[in-house]
């Protein structure tokens, strides 16, 4: 006898059809994928925060934006810094922050898709086991 838990309820898979059993497997896989995506978002968020801390320590004094051309400025915490005044290390950390932001955005989209699939599989499995 094989069981699985859906929304806090235990269900027996022995009586499921091949198609319903396949849907149950897809549900379990997707559930694990949601957890994996959440852990990856956490990992990239932690890395991003570490880069921001290090970057903050490397930044010079901010300047008045009215004195700067937009093309020669980066923004950190709503403050403008002339690119020419940043060290290579600061530029590398800034680039790493932006790269982490891109990964987090992509993972957020993947997570939304996986959670939507999980709801769909959950409804299908629930319908199969409850009749």
Widest beta sheet: strand line-up: 1-2
Largest sheet: 2 strands, antiparallel
Spatial separation of the terminal alpha carbons: 19 Å
Report the C-alpha radius of gyration, rounded: 24 Å
Strand percentage lies at 5-15%
Number of strands: 4
Count of folded domains: 1
As a percent range, the share of helical residues equals 55-70%
The run of helices and strands is EEHEEH
Shape: rod-shaped
Number of helices: 2
Low-confidence stretches: none
Structural class estimated from helices and strands: alpha+beta
Q: What's the overall average pLDDT, rounded?
A: 89
Explain the layout of strands and helices.
Layout: E1 3-6, E2 9-12, H1 18-58, E3 73-76, E4 79-82, H2 88-130
Folded structure, characterized:
The protein is built from two helices and four strands. It has 131 residues and is of the alpha+beta class. It has one domain (3-130). The strands form two sheets. It has a two-stranded antiparallel sheet with strand order 1-2. It has a two-stranded antiparallel sheet with strand order 3-4. It is rod-shaped.
């Amino acid at each position: 006898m094989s069981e699985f838990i859906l929304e806090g309820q235990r269900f027996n898979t022995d009586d499921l059809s091949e198609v319903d059993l396949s849907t149950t497997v897809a549900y379990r896989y997707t559930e694990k994928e949601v957890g994996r995506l959440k852990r990856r978002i956490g990992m990239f968020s932690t890395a991003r925060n570490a880069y921001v801390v290090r970057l903050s320590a490397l930044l010079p004094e901010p300047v008045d934006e009215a004195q700067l051309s937009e093309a020669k400025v980066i923004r950190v915490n709503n403050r403008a810094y002339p690119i020419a005044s940043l060290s290579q290390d600061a530029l590398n950390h800034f680039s790493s922050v932006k790269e982490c932001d891109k990964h987090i955005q992509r993972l957020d989209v993947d997570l939304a898709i996986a959670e939507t699939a999980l709801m769909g599989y959950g409804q299908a499995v629930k319908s199969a086991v409850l009749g």
